[in-house]
Design brief:
The chain is an alpha+beta fold. Strand 5 and strand 6 form a beta hairpin. The protein is rod-shaped and about 145 Å long. The termini are far apart.
Length: 239
């Protein structure tokens, strides 16, 4: 028996006596450099995947936070700049009908023919919806019970002569003032004062407006109506 086989047999007998292992020790095989590279490459890939997952999770958190901030800012902006209005009555037929629900833009600058809501001086807590017909600086003239409103007319023009001659611009608005107090008030006015407006309901035969309550000041105006959200079959922007 050669010395190698003898040494191997002695090792087997020693392990059987000590009972440390039922098998003889195996010689460690040295890992080749190629296998080491594969293991290192696998570790690097795992680390990259973990880092990639962490980056995606961070991006997702940032995106969720951004969406929440945009939503919160939009809600705050809506509450600060808009209010709802409930149409009660028929003064704006056919534009609005009784029961319509509107959105009023509180901070929008209003122009001629815009629809606005305002609080009447003699009915605090109420809210009317009318259309702006006359702006500050527009000329007015009252003859008998008729009010003539002309926009962009120079002050040196004698409006009464134009009325007597029946020569008036196409944009002239002629309305009847039924109430005597309002008639007397407007008779002494030649133009709409600063920060005051002449408003009318679209349903002229059934509307309480500037023909009876006089001018509406900018302090009374709550905002411009630009959207109807109910009923759903007439949902959308209005003008």
């Amino acid at each position: 028996m050669g010395p190698k086989r003898l040494r191997k047999k002695q090792q087997e007998e020693a392990y059987k006596v000590n009972r440390k292992s039922p098998y003889p020790p195996q010689k460690r095989k040295r890992r080749s450099s190629e296998k080491k590279n594969q293991i290192q490459s696998s570790k690097k890939q795992k680390i990259k995947k973990t880092m990639g997952k962490n980056k995606r999770a961070k991006r997702s958190n940032y995106l969720e936070t951004l969406v929440f901030l945009i939503f919160a800012i939009s809600c705050i902006n809506f509450l600060l700049n808009y209010r709802a209005h409930f149409v009660d009555g028929h003064s704006m037929d056919p534009t609005f009908q009784n029961g319509d629900r509107l959105l009023v833009h509180k901070s929008k600058k209003f122009e001629r023919y815009d629809i606005v809501t305002f609080e009447p001086k003699d009915e605090l807590g109420e809210s009317y919806v009318k259309r702006v017909i006359g702006l500050p600086g527009d000329r007015i003239f009252v003859k008998n019970d008729q009010l003539y409103l002309v926009e962009h007319l120079d002050n040196d023009v004698d409006l009464s002569q134009w009325i007597d001659a029946g020569v008036l611009p196409d944009s002239t608005v002629v309305v009847r003032i039924a109430q005597e107090p309002t008639l007397n008030l407007l008779r002494n006015v030649e133009e709409i004062p600063k920060d005051h407006y002449f408003v009318l309901g679209d349903n002229r035969s059934n509307s309480k407006d500037s023909r009876s309550i006089g001018f509406v000041s900018s302090d009374q105006i709550e905002g411009v109506v630009n959207f109807r959200f109910y009923p759903f079959n007439r949902f959308g922007f209005v003008h």
